[in-house]
Each structure stands twice: as structure tokens, then as C-alpha cells.
Amino acid sequence: MTELLVNIVSSVLARIGRTAESAARDAGGMAILVARVVRATATGQVALRDVSIQLMSVGVGSIPLVAVTAALSGIVTSQQGGYQFTNSIPLYVLGSVVTAGVILELGPVMTAIVVIGRVGARITAEIGTMKVSEQIDALHSLGRDPVSVLAAPRIIAGVLAMPLLVGLANLIGVFAGLVAARFAVGLGAESFLYGARMFWHSWDLLYSIAKGVVFGFVIPLISVHMGFKTRGGAEGVGRATTSAVVLMIITVLVLDATFPPLFLN
């Protein structure tokens, strides 16, 4: 019995150690990648054409899905808020609930989840395929830096496009919540906007956009890093893409949890 318990504890500790080692290795690899991206950008090695192509893919291509997700988030928040309200709570407070919920939380986080699924997974799969098919080695042989050609344009595009997508999601989500409040609880637009203005802080919008900047940086960073470390052919590309999506979602949620104590207190 004692030997079995020792084996279980040893196995758990070994798994924890391997996980910590892998996390430390990934963190170091991403730190080196950031330094290389900064150097490539500062020295003018990043082509504006490559950045504009990625902006179209990350930003413009994501607008329809972001708009649908934001509209549904605003509608659900408005309906649930109206359902929870009682006669003792003025209905115009629903405007504040929807506005704060969408701008502070749902707009940035749901947009990040959409970008992870649509853009982050694609970046990892693209670069991972290039890695296992030795296209990245071909870039090296031609004297091209894969970081300036593949990594930097995607990270720059993410940082530029994500705040704009978050702003669009906020606008659509609040408007959808306003319309939903009219049909759900009969709250007019003037009363909805009155409640939204009553509890509005100008910092809320900056807070939301700051989340967009941070998420727009970490999502392509993780996806590019996981693509560069892909091994093992098509099966390895699948594993790398799955691991990248899981890591991106966890990272976004952890960063989202750190924002309130750092910036709202």
C-alpha cells in the first residue's frame, strides 16, 4: 500500500515537473520571439505589404463573425438582466448592466475567442505546415528571416486589428442589447441610454480597448510560436494546432482575470 502511494505521488510530481518544464520552455521561446520581432520591426525588415495582407485577414475577415457574436452577447445580456430585475429595481438600470457587461467583459473576451478560432488556429496550422514541409528551412537558405517574413507581420496585424474589432463588438453589442431590452421588458431607447450614462465611466472604454491590444498581441504570438516548434508531419501539425488553441484560450482567460484587480481598483 505504501509503495503504491509512493508510486502515485512520484507519477503526479513527475507530470507536474514535465508540465512546468514545458511551460518554462515555451515562455522562454516566446520571449526570444518577441525580442526578434521587435528587432526586425525596429530595423525596418518587416514589409508593409505583408502587414496589410495580415490586417485584411485578421481584421476585415473577422468582422462578420465578430458582429454576430457581439450581437448575440448583447441580446442575451439584456434578456437575462431583464429577467433578473424585480419591481424594486428601476428598469433603466438595465442600460448600465448591458453597457458595462458588453464593454468591460463580453466585447473583448468574445472577440478574442472568435479570433482564436478563426485566426490563431489558422496561423499555427500554416506555419506548422511550412515547418514540417521544410519551407522555413528554404527561407533560411534564401537569406530570408522567417521572423520578419512570417511572425512580425502577423503579430503587428493582431495588435492593430484587435482593438478595432473590440470597439466594433462593443458598439454592436450595446445596440443589440438596446433593441432586445425594448422587446424583452419594454424599455425604451431613451431610458436605456439614460441608465447607461448614469453609471458610465470614461475609463471603461480605454479598459476595453487595452484588453483588445493585449489579446491582439498574445494570440498571434502563441500561434506563431507553436507553429515554429511543430514537429512530426501532418499529425504534428494537428497536435500543435490543438495545443495552441488550448493555450491561447487559457492565456486570454487568465489575462482577463488579472485586468480587474490591476486596473479597476
Assign a percent range to the helix content: over 70%
The computed structural class is mainly alpha
Radius of gyration: 22 Å
**What is the 3D form?**
globular
Mean pLDDT: 89
Question: How many β-strands, per DSSP?
Answer: 0
Number of helices: 9
Tell me what the structure shows.
It is a single chain. This protein has 265 residues and is mostly helical. The chain has nine helices and no strands. α2 packs parallel to α6 (146-185). It starts with a helix and ends with a helix. The model has no long low-confidence stretch (mean pLDDT 89).
Summarize the structure.
With 265 residues, the protein is mainly alpha-helical. It contains nine helices and no strands. The N and C termini lie far apart (51 Å).
Salient structural properties:
single chain, 265 residues, mainly alpha, 9 helices, 0% strand, globular
Write the layout of secondary structure elements.
Elements: H1 2-42, H2 48-58, H3 63-84, H4 93-132, H5 135-141, H6 146-185, H7 189-198, H8 202-228, H9 233-264
Helix pairs in contact: 1-6, 2-6, 3-4, 3-6, 4-6, 4-7, 4-8, 4-9, 6-8, 8-9
